[in-house]
Amino acid sequence: MEKTTSSSSSSSSSSSSEKEKEKENVKIKKKEALGWMEWLRGWMYVAQEMLFQRIMASHLQNPLPLPPINELTCIVTGSTSGIGREIARQLAQAGAHVVMAVRNTKAAQELIQKWQNEWSGMGLPLNIEVMELDLLSLESVVRFAEAWNARLGSLHVLINNAGIFSIGEPQNFSKDGYEAHMQVNHLAPALLSILLLPSLIRGSPSRVVNVNSVMHYIGFVDPEDMNVVSKKRKYTSLVGYASSKLAQVMFSSILHKRLPAESGICVLCVSPGIVQTNVARDLPKIVQAAYHLIPYFLFSPQEGSRSALFASTDPQIPEYCELLKSDEWPVCAFVSQDCRPTNPSEEAHNIKTSYEVWEKTLEMVGLPLDAVERLLEGEEVKCRYGVSE
Ligand SMILES: NC(=O)c1ccc[n+]([C@@H]2O[C@H](COP(=O)([O-])OP(=O)(O)OC[C@H]3O[C@@H](n4cnc5c(N)ncnc54)[C@H](OP(=O)(O)O)[C@@H]3O)[C@@H](O)[C@H]2O)c1
């Protein structure tokens, strides 16, 4: 009798614990996409930027006046075209030492020649140089960082601008095996930012500025499926692009948290607006023609460079980043196309996923999980993609 009672009580307690477990499972059931309200709100942000960016940014001058920056050394990735080209030119003309980190070094040399000619007679020659960097190869990123760090100089601003949006193209993978948008727009810049920490520490106060996009509002990242190959989500170039931009915000938020205030390094993301550049080079010709027919709504590359230039040079930025850090805010600073601080997407505030994206990213780029802490301690950190490995 006793046994029965105890067995019935144990069976009822086991069934209730199963129910508890089930409830738990439902509670922690993995989110597999944006909720439709989040998705709709995301598209509203995109539409708002597309239609009203010019009105929202009407208080800004063009070009954006820059404070004195003669002492600054800035690396600008993807500076042969579009927004990056404008960022590099304006920083150099304002007196900074600019390093164009590009895959097409010949095009960059030709641009420098052109800018020097235009600038001649207006002041000292521009202090600008070229270094090779191909973000589709993590080995190239390590080579670039090693070459730069070996100079033992200071780096004040790293601008991760280079990016791709292969609109309408089938899914592509880098030779490292990663989805191309994810690699160029997120993984490679993340590796670069971490490997350059020794130089950013020497240049402190310093900044890492990521040229992000309003498209991250419609992005969703599954840390278990960064390459979008599991078939849980159908791959499109839009999914690839938006996910990579959201992954960058999430990773940057954790990097921002991991860097103590004493390091003096700020991490920010910016939205340049919707800008008329070569980013649409993969669109069908007819769509490209339509794209160029709406110049009133689109920013010129000079207008699109303002948020990155603001984030790179405004003297109040370090204070703002510190404020976010002391408030334990879940995301890093995000500067909108009108140079105002704004909130990234709801999904970007998902701190649990951000930590998962952080860990997954470090694993994918071949760095140990404590890479940042070790670099801050002055230790050497090896990357799996290093040539000597
Ligand atoms: N245009 C917009 O409306 C818009 C909106 C939001 C965000 N953004 C972001 O703004 C940034 C700049 O884009 P953009 O509009 O100026 O486009 P863009 O004119 O196409 O310029 C992109 C730059 O990235 C470089 N790049 C591409 N793949 C690279 C690789 N594997 N390694 C090294 N560099 C590489 C390109 O070099 P090559 O010249 O050698 O190809 C080019 O210099 C991107 O991050 C983009 O996502 C743009």
UniProtKB/TrEMBL annotation:
Compositional bias annotation for Low complexity: 1-16
GO MF annotations in UniProt: oxidoreductase activity
Compositionally biased spans, kind Basic and acidic residues: 17-26
Protein keywords: Oxidoreductase
Region (Disordered): 1-26
UniProt KW Phosphoprotein keyword: no
SUPFAM superfamilies: NAD(P)-binding Rossmann-fold domains
One Pfam family in the UniProt entry: adh_short
Sequence similarity: Belongs to the short-chain dehydrogenases/reductases (SDR) family.
Name recorded for this polypeptide: Retinol dehydrogenase 11-like
Organism: Tripterygium wilfordii
Phylogenetic placement of the source organism: Eukaryota, Viridiplantae, Streptophyta, Embryophyta, Tracheophyta
